User: Fold this.
Amino acid sequence: MSTTADVIVVGAGIIGAACAYRLAERGLKVRLLEAASAAARGSTGKSAAGVRVQFTEAANVLLSWHSIQEYRQMPEAGYRPTGYLFLVPEEAWESHLRGVELQRGLGVPVEVYGLEAAQRWFAFEPEGLAGATFGPADGVVDPHGICIEYLRRARSLGAELHLETELLRAERRGRMWRLDTSRGAFEAPVVLNAAGAWAGEVGRRAGLNIPVQPARRMVFATAPLPQPLSGPLTIDLSSGFYFRPEGERLIFGKSNPADVGFAEGMDWSWLEPTLEAGMLRFPWFERLALDHRASWWGYYEVTPDHNPILGWMPGVEGWVNACGFSGHGVQQAAAVGRLMAEEIVDGRARLIDIDALRYERFSRAVEALERHIV
Assistant:
């Protein structure tokens, strides 16, 4: 016997949870399939929890800005506007300021600082830098709290969550998708792929080519500091090194572009190049001790242009993608939930123009590249 619904959402991370809530809010019968034994066990639960509006593509700016507005109203989100500080190298300063102009034109707050003023929070070596930008509405949230609250809201509206339910294969049969899983068969006219780092594999099991692959990321944590620090998540754009205060500690990291695929566990060999990059800009990092037990790892879900894939799959009836966020899923989930409900119920998303993020862009000669990737 197959279980039927109006929409089947694959993945119960923060994106799938937000989409399920908004779809159920529109009166649809929704079922969420999650391969893990609990929700928010993938990228959501392993996120560094930052939210920011400082992007270079309009769609990304608006996705984050609309989401931040929603998180501000959610006690479960734990939103704290601690800010993001970008330290910008000389060769990128002109293009970075064009990004600031775009952000301000879209109505989001961004401030420009000289190098001396930017050291109001943390000291750094200014060599090679031209200036800094600060987003006062940027900050941190509780991704797990947001995800669980969206799931609670979805279930209160009739949505059903099926844990330990791995998608094995999917095929279109007439007007319905049939999904064979480890817990039986499900049928629905619409499938929403919100499987995070597994979104590419979910596509393959449906016979679809969805260019999303996992990329492992390390988040290192210091031992408790003698005196806790406060300030923004700070990013040195010349190296990609970032850090932010987290309670009595600092957490920090730097993406390894070669670390792709489903490798598991901490890559301690990446600590040395990460610290080398950090100490060049922040020499005081040399005095900090590391806490191995407080450090963790997780997956980004990356696309070729580091932008998400949103909306109907071209040439495939009833398949919708909301995946490939390349590290930005937590900060954009609230808006994506609303957009996917519009896309599925109304036929097209309206809240934000997502045409630049649709699958069709991969067939064009030029792809929009988001420059602010951390």
Q: What stands out?
A: The chain has a mean pLDDT of 96. The radius of gyration is 21 Å. The first strand starts at residue 2 and ends at 4. The chain has two domains: 2-45+143-212+304-363, 84-136+214-298.
